[in-house]
Design goal:
Blueprint (H helix, E strand, L loop, with lengths): L2 E7 L5 E7 L3 H10 L3 E7 L15 H16 L4 H11 L3 H15 L4 H6 L7 H13 L2 H47 L8 H5 L5 H35 L2 H13 L3 H22 L4 H11 L3 H15 L5 H7 L4 H13 L2 H57 L1
Antiparallel strand pairs: 1-2, 1-3
């Protein structure tokens, strides 16, 4: 049995600490109560891993299927522990099987499903964890898991479509960069001696002179430039792991040209869908806001939603602080305001999420289609500039000889 460390107080209010072996936290509480002790904190000292023993993340479609199957089993009346055990045994994904084994053992020891899922952040995201917690507390776990399944599948489909659409532009960018690099590093230097006389006479075109200087710099200091870029990339990566860096990245996502509107709409849609689902299932507004705040997936929006929660505590409406933040579209704020007056907030929020996701999907498809010709033009322009820079002095020398 696992060991637990506890802090408790006796009838005199004295602080008592100790360790005890028990099968679950609930059993520890019962043991302390029997000794006339009031538990303050109970900390598990079990040595279970909080991350998968091997492997990493699990694919979006695999997780969507898991949530759907777990919801179906629970809806059919199968107990939670047995449902997890069934899905664990039939899973063909090694990482998911290992994780489900740990989740099953933790739930069996008395942990809530949401808490057990939160031990594996690489597999279960914040939305799944918070929805599982709310569903377990509100008695609508099947509906919550079904919503998570649909949301995960939709996100996976959007990610796959975006990735598939970006493959061609990425190939173009890679090929174009490779071609230009070969020209600049290996091909351009061979023209240096040919144009040296024009350069000494000051008659070399500025474009050709700039190209030759750039080529010489790359040849002489290429390794140093690569080292600086690698060091800068590592520094930015480390900064991105801090809370300040994450907030800055989320802010850049919202302010980014073209893509910023898409990131904003998707985050607002996630917030509206989760909040509407929780309210529809009877979860109080403040708790629903706390859970859906994490579902937005953007720290800047999280701050705005947190401010809205504080305003609601003081008796104000939800739409007013959201509108003041400037990060929620005016149409969304107006629809929320009307929904609050008509007491149909849960239904309207889900409709808002559907509309935002549909419009964003169309915008994303259009934007990706525009990237392909733009990449072709950029790559063609880069190659053309190199060719022109090399041909200009040749043409000038030819005219001089005539």
């Amino acid at each position: 049995m696992p060991d637990y460390a506890y802090v408790a107080r006796n009838l005199k209010g004295e602080r008592i600490t100790g360790n005890v072996s028990a099968s679950s936290e609930r059993e520890v509480q019962q043991m302390l109560t029997a000794q006339a002790l009031f538990p303050v904190t109970i900390t598990g000292k079990a040595t279970r891993s909080s991350t998968p023993l091997f492997g990493g993340r699990v694919g979006g479609q695999t997780m969507a299927n898991f949530y759907f199957q777990l919801a179906a089993l629970l809806r059919a009346g199968v107990p939670l522990l047995r449902s997890i055990r069934i899905l664990r045994d039939q899973s063909s994904h090694a990482t998911l099987k290992t994780v489900l084994r740990d989740v099953h053992d933790r739930v069996e020891d008395g942990e809530g499903l949401g808490e057990a899922l939160s031990r594996h952040p690489k597999v279960f995201n914040d939305i799944a964890v918070n929805m599982a917690r709310a569903g377990a507390e509100g008695g609508f776990l099947e509906d919550a898991l079904d919503r998570v399944s649909k949301f995960t599948e939709m996100q996976n489909d959007l990610s796959q479509r975006t990735t598939g659409a970006l493959i061609y532009p990425v190939i173009l960018a890679t090929a174009g960069t490779t071609i230009v690099s070969i020209l600049v590093i290996f091909f351009v230097p061979k023209f240096g001696e040919m144009f040296e006389q024009l350069r000494r006479q000051g008659e070399l075109p500025w474009m050709t002179d700039a190209l030759l200087n750039f080529s010489e710099t790359i040849q002489s200091y290429g390794w140093l430039i690569a080292l600086v870029i690698a060091a800068l990339g590592f520094f930015l990566y480390m900064q991105a792991q801090t809370e300040r860096g994450k907030r800055l990245i989320d802010l850049c996502k919202l302010k980014m040209p073209l893509f910023g509107v898409i990131f904003q709409a998707l985050a607002v849609a996630r917030f509206c869908r989760v909040l509407g689902t929780l309210l529809h299932n009877g979860v109080p507004i403040l708790k629903s806001l706390d859970i859906s705040r994490a579902a937005a997936g953007n720290r800047i929006l999280n701050t705005a939603i947190e401010a809205a929660s504080q305003n609601i505590t003081s008796g104000e409406s939800l739409s007013k602080p959201l509108g003041k933040s400037g990060y929620f579209p005016k149409t969304v704020v107006e629809m929320i305001s009307v929904a609050e007056e008509s007491n149909a907030l849960d239904t309207v929020l889900v409709d808002v999420a559907d509309g935002l996701e549909n419009r964003t999907s169309r915008k994303l498809d259009l934007l990706v289609r525009m990237i392909e010709p733009a990449m072709l033009l950029v790559m063609a322009a880069m190659v053309l500039m190199v060719v022109i820079a090399l041909l200009l002095p040749v043409i000038k020398m030819s005219s001089t000889m005539r």
